[in-house]
Amino acid sequence: MSESAVARPTGATEVPEPPMALPGGLVSLADWRLPPASVRHTVRDLLRSTWGQFRHRFDPGEHGFRPEPDIETLTSLQLRRFAPDPDRTAQVQALGAEIDRQQAQTRDGVLALVTPPCSGLRETLVTLAEERGWRVIQPPEVWPASQAEAENWWQQQALDEPWLIADLAGLWRRHRRGLWLLKAFFQGLALGRFGAGVVHCSSWCWGFWQRYLPQLPVASCTPAALDEPLLAAWLGSLVGRESGLTVRMSDSGDAVLPLESERNGSRRHRLIRDLAAFARGNPGVALAIWRKLLRARPEAPEADTDKPATGARGCWAIPLEQLSLPAVPSSPDRGATLILHALLLHDGLSLGELPAVTGLGSDAVAILLQTLRNGELVAEGERGWQVTALGYPAVRRQLLNDGYPVDGF
Asked: Per-residue pLDDT for the chain (409 aa), expressed as one digit of tens each?
């Protein structure tokens, strides 16, 4: 919200935006750019993806992970030291400042924040709304049965005061009765019936409604994609500004972090560049893969062992191509991909909701979910079943290959 639209909490003071709490800030959807990858990684990834279509079979007992090289992974304590979760407090401050900046440029004060899966900003937005006293719109317990019921529901939400829809994907379901709420919402926006507010929407949900209603009447923005410099700075900032985190390749000793290491005479590895491209600039996906890459000791004795160790400031990383990530198994039917697509469209669904939006039977849904969970592609949480951060790259690639409409991120 802009300063004129929202009163700050009593006694609040302005805090400068932490440099890397929201790397790259918010940009318009038209300005979002996919990070580039090295040529070697692009060719290798294409070949691996093509070969994967033949290699994987849909086996309920199959797991997505293969054995990794015999090298020590980091303990949970070391992971918290070298790859902790982002600082939520700093992220709230940075996101609030960016929303104020973006919203000041809108005509009616309504701003859509579109984020790719696993970006982790939904919880940050809810915290921001609580701090600023915004009204948080929650999904109804019963879906409206008509346009009139949907319009009446929105009239009861008191959207003349600052508001937040933390999860637009939770306000619809891909069946006839589940469309009324968002139809009425977009109609209300077009007619100027609502006051200033923020809409948070997953990129898959936004893509669906852009195709359904090409002229959505709302200004939109998205977090900037993390390219190599932004991702390197962000990963380093997670452990603290003064930590001096040093990461080198386990097989060669080439420098990974910080990026400036090459000026000391050591070669800089392309790992961060390729990780940024593989994760498509998504910080949640990049961090999940980064945690899987980190190791406690070099792979071979000839690696430069006298540089980083497993102490407070240094560790190792294995090559990206050595990491075994979840893969979507091939199948003669589309049951698994129907479920995965539905989970992304709605940013999570319960077991009971999936049959209605996929057209599959309850028994088939339950079996397929367990298979996908065994393959580390989905997990069950507070918001129902969702695609995992580690599984998302493979899921998106498979849906694209199978002809599903995918998001633009």
From this structure: 433 333 333 333 343 334 488 999 999 999 999 999 865 555 455 445 434 443 444 444 444 434 344 567 888 888 888 999 999 999 999 999 999 999 999 888 999 999 999 988 999 999 999 999 999 999 988 889 898 999 999 999 989 899 999 999 999 998 878 899 999 999 998 888 899 999 999 999 999 998 888 887 789 999 999 999 999 999 988 987 656 778 999 888 888 988 765 545 556 789 999 999 999 999 999 999 999 999 886 554 444 444 443 444 688 999 999 999 999 987 778 999 999 999 999 999 999 999 999 999 999 999 999 999 999 999 998 889 999 999 999 999 999 999 999 998 9
Q: How many Cβ atoms from other residues are within 10 Å of residue 109's Cβ?
A: 19
> What's the fold here for domain 326-401?
Arc Repressor Mutant, subunit A (1.10.10)
Is 369 in contact with 378 (CB distance < 8 Å)?
A: yes
Q: How many Å apart are CA 373 and CA 387, to the nearest integer?
A: 9
Domain chopping of the chain, boundaries = 76-84+239-322, 87-223, 326-401
**Edge-to-edge strands, sheet with 255-257:** 255-257, 246-249, 314-317, 294-295
Distance between CA 318 and CA 300 in Å, rounded? Answer: 11
Q: How far apart are CA 113 and CA 203, in angstroms?
A: 9
Q: What share of the chain is helix, strand, coil (3-state, %, to 5)?
A: 40, 10, 45
- Per-residue H/E/C for 82-146: HCCCCCHHHHHHHHHHHHHHHHCCCCCCEEEEEECCCCCHHHHHHHHHHHHCCEEECCCCCCCCC
Helix (H, G, I), strand (E, B) or coil at 189: helix
Whole-model pTM?
A: 0.84
DSSP 3-state assignment of 275? helix
Count Cα neighbours of 174 within 13 Å in the Cβ-side half-sphere. Answer: 22
Measured CA to CA, the distance from residue 313 to residue 111 in angstroms comes to 41
Q: What architecture (CATH level 2) is domain 87-223? A: 3-Layer(aba) Sandwich (3.40)
CA 386 vs CA 41, 147, 224, 249: distances in Å: 28, 29, 23, 32
Q: Rounded distance, CA 283 to CA 42, Å?
A: 20
Nearest 10 degrees: CA dihedral of 341, 346, 348, 352?
-90
